[in-house]
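Annex B. Sample input.
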Amino acid sequence: MQYLLYGPLAAKVAHAWRETGSPPLGSWCLHLLVLLALRSLTFQLWFSYGNMLFFTRRRRVVKDGVDFRQIDAEWDWDNMVILQTLIAAMVANSPAFPGVAELRAWDLRGWALALLLHVTVSEPLFYWAHRALHRGPLFSRYHAKHHSSPVTQPLTAGFGTPLEALVLTAAMGAPLAGAFAAGAGSVSLVYGHVLLFDYLRCMGYSNVEVVSHKAFAAIPALRYLIYTPTYLSLHHREKDSNFCLFMPLFDALGGTINARSWELQKEVDQGMNDRVPDFVFLAHVVDVVSSMHVPFAFRSCSSLPFATRLVLLPLWPVAFAFMLLQWFCSKTFTVSFYFLRGRLHQTWSVPRYGFQYFIPSAKKGINRQIELAILRADKMGVKVISLAALNKNEALNGGGTLFVSKHPNLRVRVVHGNTLTAAVILNEIPSNVKEVFLTGATSKLGRAIALYLCRKKIRVLMLTLSTERFLKIQREAPAESQQYLVQVTKYQAAQSCKTWIVGKWLSPREQRWAPPGTHFHQFVVPPIIGFRRDCTYGKLAAMRLPKDVEGLGSCEYTMERGVVHACHAGGVVHCLEGWGHHEVGAIDVDRIDVVWKAALKHGLTPA
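Annex B, continued. Sample output.
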């Protein structure tokens, strides 16, 4: 709603456009709106680049992740941009600044004067104002909020109090005001100066070292003319040095340069602080729309459970183009990470989309991508790699068995996580239930659920047309429990059963056979749509990560904050327990309770 503040500017542009029949290129209101869009794009592009871990992971200054607390605190980071645009609109429309009324496209004198004023006015003004903000009550009242973000991001550059925004506005506006007062201002100067100012601010806050230490070694004086992300990060964390705007020269003159600035910058630039993950969750893209939910696209989307947002629909062609690009020339890449009890957990993604897993000719290529990811993890020293959703499809690779059989000497443990998935579903079923209806009954999960429940003397109506597969599962059950497994071939057989465990997609017509009051437990991907208002629908099996998880700032598909799919959680438990076996192929029913108790012991809770 805050963007409604631009209503008067937009209305003025629209009125002038209607009156003249063409875009009012001589209107400052139009230029300010265009500049607003370009500034927002600058922040967004730097944010996306900084969070593309497959490009920047080795050169991150601070290795910690950005958590939900910081994301929520910085949610209105654009308030500064809004304030500055409104101030500019007032100046442009004020008779007190007559030089602004004349619009010239270009004036080289203005560029030279703006550069001079930046060095002689903006830099020292910001330096001394910044130092003042770090003293006594000024810091606690007006600057501590900005420093409360533990990991800098380009969006952190706009996060702060109104006083900080005014100081930055003065630093940014002084060169422009001087140029226009001297009659040398131009439209190109406004665009160039403001966008370059934002570019350098975003670069410093990106938390990714983009300035080569070799440049400083070749030209030592350069280190006093331009700061680096490492330089600013030291200020942000230690708060007692490196106060400059863009030029460390003023820290040198003020005696406030952090002695570690150049040494640390060299270490980060060379990737010397990179770390091997302990656990990897190997995911894949669901579809084109959900691909825009990745953490390096839009933080306001990825930090919330996935939902189709109309505002993203115009970007669908871009997302579709990226899908084609990944299909033909891409490999597994790092998407996100978090820390749990000192262990680094990462999510990697196979560059394939859900529909591609059902194209027969694509299976070989997909398996090759998964195999290369496992071998890469093994070479790096990863302890556990967990396969997500379709990456462990039985028809694709036997639930991971293909890779373990092909590479018997793997040090990394390959885990499908379905044991914990089964445990989550089974522990959702009320203890007083005596009968369940099971679809997808002969699948890997269906088999384990049926065998577990029949041991508990719960009658399982197994929907399958294959008597052979049913009898094979039934023979696995103890002799005294086999009577509790019943084959059914039609949905009508469950008309009186109020507990449905769904492992196969159900159409509205099939759902209507459930009696009123039925609860649908699910392990089908994608989840079924709840058409029945007189029934309840469970979500996909999931668990909430322990409270001491650190640096988690994105949601896993449709899961709530801090919640991950059960197969992801299964890999986490495998890593925390230090188990030395692979978990691939058929689910070991005897281990369902073991894995469940281990998950609860480590602080994971049902979601």
